[in-house]
Design goal:
The complex is a heterodimer. Chain A is mainly alpha-helical. Helix content of chain A is about 55%, strand content about 10%. Chain A has a two-stranded parallel ribbon with strand order 1-2. In chain A, α1 packs across α2. The model of chain A has no long low-confidence stretch (mean pLDDT about 85). Chain B is α/β, with parallel strands linked by helices. Chain B has 14 helices and ten strands. The N terminus of chain B is likely disordered. The chains are: A mainly alpha, B alpha/beta. At the A-B interface, β1, α2, β2, α3 and α4 of A face α1, β1, α2, α3 and α4 of B. β2 of chain A pairs parallel with β1 of chain B, so a sheet runs across the interface.
């Protein structure tokens, strides 16, 4: 995935970038920074971790269940991305509305894409 | 197929991270259940030039929860030059050193300052108010004008229920208050022993129907009225003059306590314990938040390096 990012950035004709990687994107961003140090000026890593990090044991089945829905709904999203408190859940609902209010929506990712992501992480 | 977690957390050394030479900003929520938050700390500890920010009361989607704050932090991080960082240490430090108004760091500092002056406590969260200041429930003073003025100033204004002769008058007063402010305000209901008890159930109806979502109770134990209030999602702040009364109020389901020492206005109880002694004791015992009654001219008096100061706020009576 890092190789794809580097190829994409070079195809855009960019010679130096700042990189923001969220979650799985954060794994990729670390790899891009390592593989192409001259291309990357600064990196922001959000909601992510290192290879060999901690938490394998705490990746509980409920998280896995919420995370592998073909069509994630608000409930999955609130559980996975926000704290259980009333304020955090309310912030989650507000974000959900903002996200779905955008005119330019991403195509939803498929189960195939989810599998490919997992494979990419493993390789 | 390996799950993402199984694949990404093999027992491999973290040595690769020290090869990342770029400045890195690491951010996450307080309790991320997807990629546990401890990993952000591990990143910061192993990447040579990394800054860590953990946002409160949030999870994996912390950057979605605090978009403005995150963008301010990100801008600050991206705008500071490598030279500045070498000189000053780290990007967040530069925010405090930002000089001109055209300086992006200065603009970001504005966002940070706004957060500092908007003191967030469990009371501000509970009541949906900007400042942790609650008006006292005062007979013949707590009219709509007073309550709306306090609420408009960012505190919690209180209409004194029993100052209104009838529940219908109370309903009208609540309506007048709503015309004057769109911010949260509360109603005080004082339960006192009496041969001709005021029509409390009707007062509660008027309060609920008027859209009030916070009630300050005072006087006797409010237990019998709690179900009616809770049924409508009303938060109950009960006024107490002792630790034992506070604990009772907590047990019966009150959301917060207004703690009333011997020197306070109104009825100071019968224990003669002043706030200097009562407040720290209540802080030791209670799990729910509380407000310190009395006039507090200096904020510092409320936070003598108390580890519990985040639970305190003042109530002007």
């Amino acid at each position: 995935m890092a190789k794809h990012v580097i190829a994409f950035v070079e195809a855009l004709g960019l010679t130096q970038i700042d990189l923001l990687g969220f979650s799985l994107g954060g794994f990729v961003a670390q790899e891009v920074a390592l593989q192409s140090p001259d291309l990357v000026r600064r990196v922001i890593l959000a909601g992510t971790g290192p290879q060999g990090g901690e938490g394998r044991d705490s990746f509980n089945p409920t998280v896995a269940e919420h995370a592998t829905q073909e069509t994630p709904v608000l409930e999955n999203f609130l559980y996975l991305f926000f704290a259980p408190s009333e304020t955090s859940q309310a912030a989650g609902r507000a974000f959900w509305e903002r996200r779905h209010g955008r005119a330019d929506q991403d195509v939803p990712s498929s189960m195939a894409a989810m599998g490919a992501q997992a494979d990419a992480i493993a390789s | 197929m390996l799950s993402p977690a199984e694949a990404w957390f093999p027992n491999e050394p973290l040595g690769q991270l020290k090869k990342i030479k770029q400045p890195v900003l690491v951010v996450n929520g307080h309790d991320d259940i997807m990629v546990p938050s401890i990993n952000s700390f591990i990143l910061q500890q192993h990447i040579p030039n990394a800054t860590l920010i953990i946002y409160p009361d949030s999870g994996h989607g912390a950057i979605f929860q605090y978009p403005d704050l995150f963008v301010a932090h990100a801008r600050l991080f991206l705008k500071s030059s490598a030279k500045d960082e070498a000189k000053r240490g780290c990007a967040p430090e530069e925010a405090r050193c930002g000089r001109g108004t055209s300086d992006p760091a200065h603009l970001a500092r504005g966002a940070l300052t706004e957060r500092r002056i908007s003191m967030r406590t469990r009371i501000t969260e509970l009541c949906g108010i900007k400042h942790p200041i609650i008006q006292g429930g005062m007979h013949r003073v707590g009219y709509a004008e007073m309550a709306a003025a306090v609420s408009n100033a960012g505190g919690l204004g209180i209409i004194t229920g029993l100052t209104q002769p009838t529940p219908e008058d109370l309903a009208r007063e609540i309506g007048r208050c709503r015309d004057m402010t769109d911010r949260p305000s509360a109603v005080n209901l004082t339960f006192l022993p009496s041969f001709a008890a005021p029509p409390y159930p009707e007062c509660i109806d008027a309060t609920v129907e008027g859209g009030v979502r916070i009630v300050e109770t005072a006087g006797r134990n409010p237990a019998q009225y709690i179900p009616a209030l809770k049924a409508h999602g009303v938060k109950v702040i009960h006024k107490c003059t002792s630790v034992r009364h506070s604990l009772t109020a907590e047990r019966i389901g009150c959301d917060a306590i207004s703690v009333d020492g011997f020197e306070c206005g109104g009825h100071p109880g019968e224990d003669d314990v002043p706030n200097m002694i009562l407040l720290p004791r209540v802080a030791e015992e209670l799990k729910i938040p509380f407000v310190a009654r009395e006039a507090w001219p200096m904020g510092g008096a409320l936070s003598p390096r108390s580890p519990r100061r985040h639970r305190l706020c003042s109530q002007q009576a």
